[in-house]
Structure formats: C-alpha cells, structure tokens
Design brief:
The chain has eleven helices and two strands; from the N terminus they run ααββααααααααα. It is an all-alpha fold.
C-alpha cells in the first residue's frame, strides 16, 4: 500500500469515526425514548384531552395545536422566504448592501430561539395587540424560520446551471418567465429541504411559543387564530418540570409522539424531493 493510499485510508477512518460519534448518541437517545414511551402510546392517549392535572388522559389538544402552528408558520414563512431568496439571487445587484443582507440572513440563523420569543412577545403580543394567540405564535415561529428557508432557497437557486437562464432569455422569455419555468422547478428539492428543516425546528421549539401562544393546561381545541393553544414541546416541558408526581411514561410517550411527528414530516419531504429530483435534466 502506497503512502497516498495509507493517508486516504486514515482519512476515511477518521471521518467515519467522527460520524459515528455524532450518529450513535442520537440513535441511542431516540431508542431510549421509544423504549420508555411506546408502552403508554395508545388510541386514547392520542385522541383524548388531558385530565386530572395532566396526569391522566391524552395529548390530543397538544397534537392539534402543534399541527396548527406548523401550518401557520409555513403559510407566513414559505412565500416570503422564497420570494426574498429569488430577489437576492436573480434580481439584486452584487454590492455592499446585498452582501450585508446575505450575511445578516446567515447570522440570524444562529440567534437563540429565546430571543425570537421575546421579540415576538414585544411586537405581536404587546405592540400589535394580538394577545397570546395562535397568530402571534405562528408569526414568531415564521420569523425564526425565515433565515433557514431563505438560505436553503438561495443555494437551491444558485445550483441551477446558468445555461438554463441564458437559453430561456435568448428565446425571448422574460426574466420572471425564466425564473418560473426554468429555475424554480429544478430548485424545489432544495426549497423543500430547507422548509422542512425549519418547520421541524419550529415544531420542537418551546421558548418562542412560551411567550406568544402556549397554554399550560387547555383541554379543548382552539376556535380561532386569536385563541391560545397547547403544543407538544411546551406540554412536554410542563409535565416534566411543573407537574409533580406525574408518571415518567407519560413524558416519554409525549416525547415519542413529537419525534414521530417530526419524522413523518421529514419522510414526506424525502418522498417529494425524490419525485422532483427525477425531473432534473442534469
């Protein structure tokens, strides 16, 4: 074996070992949650409201509240994020101002979620007087999700070969026709990836909804976007830290349902992404 082959083998071993250090703890953690919680997951747990101080019953209002928040977040963040990315990639000139905006978008991805929660509380709950509501929570989560969606969409648009644009424009198509018919269809896999990643993060966040929408105990479904709602992430935090003498299996079962919900979202994204990738021409 030559020296170059030895270096390559050593590099593969180091990379594989580093990957295992990341993957194995995640798998063990998820397996532990599933093992501890799956015994408490049944039809009544998924379809009933909590009762007896959340020590009995199910988590149906929390499941519905989480799904409503995810849908609201997507409605507000996806169109705005995609349009912002299109402008930055296709229309904006490369100057100091646009480079500053791109850098700011990247930096906003690393802002702690508690900061977004305080911002949403001050802007939507107090200043705009939306109150502690689904609307305020969805807007807060949408702002938190925007940097990820914009960054992923921008990278997806930039991955489309420039020749696609040049050929379309040379045939007489307008700028928007080129974007709509020759760029966006091939960017959808990347856009889906960024969207699902951001929505998965939003589904598991506690700090932003703590200030803007989450209810500690609300055994009924919301009737409008101005109502409070329960959410799985905050419900898990509440029963694990605020409710004494609660059976541990309930906490683990709630965590299992939250993980399963995020997993189903990602699985749906993978299936859609695979279908769109089949249409790629390169």
């Amino acid at each position: 074996m030559s020296a170059a082959q030895k270096r390559q083998t050593a590099a593969f071993f180091i990379l594989g070992f580093a990957t295992m250090l990341v993957v194995i703890p995640i798998i063990l953690t998820m397996a532990y949650v599933v093992f501890k919680g799956i015994g408490a997951v049944n039809w009544s747990f998924l379809t009933e409201a909590p009762r007896n101080g959340m020590k009995e019953g199910g988590i149906f209002p929390a499941i519905v509240g989480t799904i409503i928040l995810i849908i609201g977040t997507m409605i507000f963040s996806l169109p705005l994020g995609v349009l912002a990315a299109i402008y930055l990639v296709e229309y904006a000139k490369d100057n100091f101002f646009t480079r500053l905006i791109k850098l700011s978008v990247v930096n906003l991805s690393g802002v702690p979620s508690i900061v977004y929660g305080l911002f949403g509380f001050g802007l939507f709950v107090l200043f705009l007087r939306l109150g502690t509501s689904i609307l305020a929570g969805s807007l807060t989560l949408a702002i938190m999700s925007l940097p990820v969606i914009i960054t992923a969409t921008k990278e997806a648009l930039e991955s489309v070969p420039a020749s696609f644009r040049e050929i379309s424009l040379s045939l007489g198509a307008t700028k928007w026709q080129t974007i709509r018919n020759c760029v966006l269809p091939y960017s959808i896999p990347g856009i889906l990836t960024g969207t699902v990643l951001s929505l998965s993060r939003a589904a598991g966040e506690t700090a932003p909804i703590l200030f803007t929408v989450a209810a500690f105990y609300l055994p009924r479904l919301p009737h409008s976007v101005f109502d409070q709602a329960m959410a799985l992430s905050y419900h898990l935090y509440a029963i694990a830290t605020q409710v004494p003498n609660i059976p541990p299996k309930i906490s683990f079962a709630t965590a299992f349902v939250l993980i399963a919900l995020v997993f189903l979202m990602n699985l749906g994204s993978i299936i859609l992404r695979a279908r769109f990738r089949k249409k790629k021409l390169w």
